[in-house]
Amino acid sequence: MTLPERQLANAIRALAMDAVQAANSGHPGMPMGMADVATVLYSDYLRFDPTDPHWPDRDRFVLSAGHGSMLAYATLHLAGYARPTIDDIRNFRQLSSPCAGHPENFELEGVETTTGPLGQGLATAVGMAIAERHLNSLYGDDLVDHRTWVIAGDGCLMEGINHEAIGLAGHLGLGRMTVLWDDNKITIDGATDLSTSEDIAARYAATGWHVESCDGHDPADIRRAIDAALADPRPSLIACRTIIGFGAPNKQGTSATHGAPLGADEIAAARETLGWTAAPFDIPADVADAWAGFADIGKKHHSLWKLRLANSEKKDEFSDRITGGVVPGAAFTAYLNGLVAEPPKVATRKASENTLGALTADIAAMIGGSADLTGSNNTKTSSTKPLTKDDYSGRYIYYGIREFGMAAAMNGMALHGGVVPYGGTFLVFADYCRAAIRLSALQQQRVVYVMTHDSIGLGEDGPTHQPIEHLQSLRAMPNLLVMRPADAVETAECWALALAQTDRPSLLALTRQNLPPLRHDVTENLCAKGGYRLRDASAARKVVLVATGSEVSLAMDIADKLEAAGHGADVVSMVSTELFDEQDGAYQDAILPRDALIVSIEAGTTFGWERYTGRDGLRFGIDSFGASAPIDDLYAHFGLTVDAITPQILAKLGN
Ligand SMILES: Cc1ncc(C[n+]2csc(CCOP(=O)(O)OP(=O)(O)O)c2C)c(N)n1
Ligand SMILES: [Mg+2]
């Protein structure tokens, strides 16, 4: 290479400052500070092929400091990806451009994961690194042998999830993961010493990481540190000492460069300082040529990999695995038929375990786990042996008490491809991982959340453990499929639906307590419609009882009473409001007829149920925190019994 490396890095700096200036919004400081590190990474280390961004054995690169999105856009453009084009970059942060404010996995090939919520990118990368080692253990170095690179900022390391993520990575010995920390000692509020005095290197070392540091503006020193990281079997953190906004003579080193345009004068001064004479969005030919050559190493690895794949006995199996088609097999069908032959009275968490037993026997891609509630979430099966540092071929991850870390890692596994992750905790602790559930949904990833102990039905553990607002708040999240099955058949159907979703996550809300069998035929997956009539009124229909999960059997008992009093009552099992809302209006009207009294029953907040009951309907639920007591006492205390509800419905009917 004849050009000085600084000049190649300055291309990133120029694009970042000019695009932010044009958009009049964005974050120039981080890309300008990390430009030298990114240039070294792309030139010598990152294995990528812009002509085939989805090549399965490519290295994964995660820009955890997502506010520095212009670093991603500049490098993708310079490195030869079809998008973003220079016009895309010119339109940074505009509706027409894939160069969104923060990098979005669905906008650009080459953006491996959506980032922006600080800390999650790094935690997601842990999942990618787990998936890589798992697939490596199955397919060997010939087919799976890549690295996971992360650029993270002070914020990513300060967030609580960082503790969970690096704890998991250190424990699992994910030595092919390297975090390049933008150690610029600046955040939005100012210098990091305003808010932290932590010895980050010591924390990482104590967690089983290898730690290096380097001058983030000295290519030779950056290479030395990366080489040391590659040579060490542990995951590595490299503290890259940088100056935020490097090159902007009056503002560099200050938080003024973090998240605002530099301004025309400072940009002109930066051009002077950096020796960058090209016009905005103009990349000199020699710089462009040098960048275009960076893909050569990756392209060579890619073509050798293709040869190895072509000659591999596992070619077809591997390709199937990567394309991600998962279909419940013979074991699942046999299990479902068995439920009809001998209907069990089981908790839906137990029904989920039984379903998983059949599914995981047939579907090798499924990797389960739990945040230290394996015996409660019923997530482990005989097919899923532990995945450990010594044996990555296992299919069960003991995530420890790291709900957020688990969920982010599952996102990373799903994004990596080749595995279908599911993991459990108590439904009430959905709050602990909610920000990662949100990213599963935003990123359109097939992640399955197994959330048990889904109501006051868990009993004595009391209000801290009893979900109230959780179901409705999760239903409010776009692109998340929330399902609350009522018995073993519905639980199996919900699992089949969860696996069939290729572009959204699912969350199964499951009971601790046993539930009676309600469904006795399995010829059609009735849960697929979201809500369906489980029982038809005998007398002329006056009432439709809409219930979910454990309250469906309660609704059946109430319907008996109403029928005995001469009022026809349907019972609708509303397994998933999202799926029901996707049905056509005629179906919805048939299930929830406008001339009937609609009554909702769910052992959680009544908030939102008026969208089905209308203002004239009745809503039974719990609009306070729960309480600590045995289950039957709680249902009585909160008025969720046949005796408490039936008279109120009769009164409403005018009796
Ligand atoms: C979870 C979360 N909290 C807050 C923010 C808002 N935010 C964006 S960048 C930033 C400061 C991050 O500092 P650092 O990582 O050091 O970035 P630098 O200023 O060095 O670019 C904050 C608070 C966010 N994006 N995500
Ligand atoms: Mg910083």
Structural features, described:
Helix content is 43%, strand content 14%. The chain has a six-stranded parallel sheet with strand order 10-9-11-12-14-13, with helices on both faces. α5 packs parallel to α7 and α5 (120-143) crosses α17 (403-416). The longest helix has 24 residues, at 120-143. Bound molecules: thiamine diphosphate and magnesium ion. Thiamine diphosphate binds at residues 29-30, 65, 67, 116-118, 153-156, 159, 182, 184, 186-188, 244, 258.
Strand order of the largest sheet: 10-9-11-12-14-13
How can the largest sheet be summarized? Answer: 6 strands, parallel
Number of helices: 26
* Structural class by secondary-structure content: alpha/beta
Helicity level: 40-55%
| Spatial shape | elongated
Q: What does the average pLDDT come to?
A: 98
Q: Mind telling me the C-alpha Rg?
A: 28 Å
- β-strand number: 20
Parts with pLDDT < 50 across at least 5 consecutive residues: none
Name the hetero compounds present. thiamine diphosphate, magnesium ion
Terminus-to-terminus distance:
89 Å
Q: How much beta, percentage-wise? A: 5-15%
Describe, in short, the structure shown.
Helix content is 43%, strand content 14%.
Structure keywords:
655 residues, alpha/beta, five-stranded parallel β-sheet, binds thiamine diphosphate, binds magnesium ion
